[in-house]
Structures are given as structure tokens and as C-alpha cells.
Design a protein that fits this description.
Keywords: ATP-binding, Cytoplasm, Nucleotide-binding, Nucleotidyltransferase, Transferase, tRNA processing. The protein has 216 residues and is α/β, with parallel strands linked by helices. It is 29% helix and 20% strand. Strands 1-8-2-3-7-4-6-5-9-10-11 form an eleven-stranded mixed beta sheet, with helices on both faces. Helix 1 runs parallel beside helix 4.
Length: 216
Amino acid sequence: MSTIYDCSVQDDRAAGLAAAAGAVRSGRLVVLPTDTVYGIGCDAFDATAVRHLLEAKGRGPDLPVPVLVGSWTTVDGLVLSVPRQARALIEAFWPGGLSLVLQHAPSLSWDLGHTRGTVMLRMPLHPVALELLRDVGPMAVSSANKSGFPPASTAQEAWDQLGEDVGVYLDGGTAAENVASTIVDLTGPDPVVLREGAVPLSEVSEVLGFEVEVAR
């Protein structure tokens, strides 16, 4: 039985965060609000849970699941190295609507899909998401929708698509941006914007000091 917790009510928020943390630690799925769109998430290091996440969305491993973190410092333990350009973008836009693709640390035992040794990381600007992430650690999180359908901007929209496949829904109100994050790939010799979204390309270029190329 799925439960939706209204995080605008303090008691419900506390109960919901506790239920969500318990679900993540036991390998189950949760829906959580972010500053962009609602996400469906699980423990990033639980391969079975990640597989269930992809099944709930009706998607295969060819599109790897991004990872959300609750602090800047978490990144250092997840990637091979944090380039100077990545640190500049983190300082400028985290928490916020910018995702970074980096080479992940080879020692990590996770299976996020066909990542080719990379991971997409983001720190969301939403108090409910941050509180959960700081409690349970990095989470594999994808947009809360069935593959091919629009991302959910409310907990109810997420439930309408995912239903009982998810045990805990955290209702943090309507997503402020209702647009996906901007993605910057830093795994090559030069940064490349894979998708322009919540953070404008012009702002990314301004921080890096040059016009960033957009993937074609």
C-alpha cells in the first residue's frame, strides 16, 4: 500500500521522511520532490533496487540513472577526481538545477545502467530532498514518470503514473521549475552541454569563462 505524506505539515513531514529513509534502506522505491521535477529514487548502491526503479519506469539500462547527493563533499567519494571546472560549477550552481557527468570511482560497487564508467551527479535545491539525502546518502533518482510520458510536477501526478510500484510519496508541493536539469559532461577534454534545462547555457559559459559547446 502506497502512502503520500504532505510535507507542508510538520508531523507528516517527519513521518514521511522516516518512512522514506526506511524504504530506501530496505531496497524499496520512494518519490521525492526536487527543485526541477519529482523524482523516483532508491539507494544508489543497491543494484536490485535500481533495477526495480527502471522496471517501474518501463525503461532499460541503456539510459543510466543519475545520482543525487546531499552535500558538495559527497562528490569526492564518488568520482575518480573532481576537475577544477567541476568545482567551479558546483560552487556556482549547487544546490540547484545543474547535473554534472564525471568519471566515477572504479572502486564503487554500483550498477546504475550502461554508464561506461561515468556517473551523472546533482545536488537538488529542495529542503525535503536534501534532508532525505543527508540521512540515507547518495540516491539513484530518475524523473518520476513512465518512460515516454511527461515528468511529474506534483506527488499526485507521480502517483497517477507509478501507483503502487512506489511505497512512499513525499509531497513537497508543485515543483518550482517543472523543467529538467541542465547536464554538463566533463569527461572529455572540453565541457559539453548534453541538455539545456533549468540553468541557462549562458550562465554555465560565464562561470567557465568561455562559450561551452552543445552536443549535437
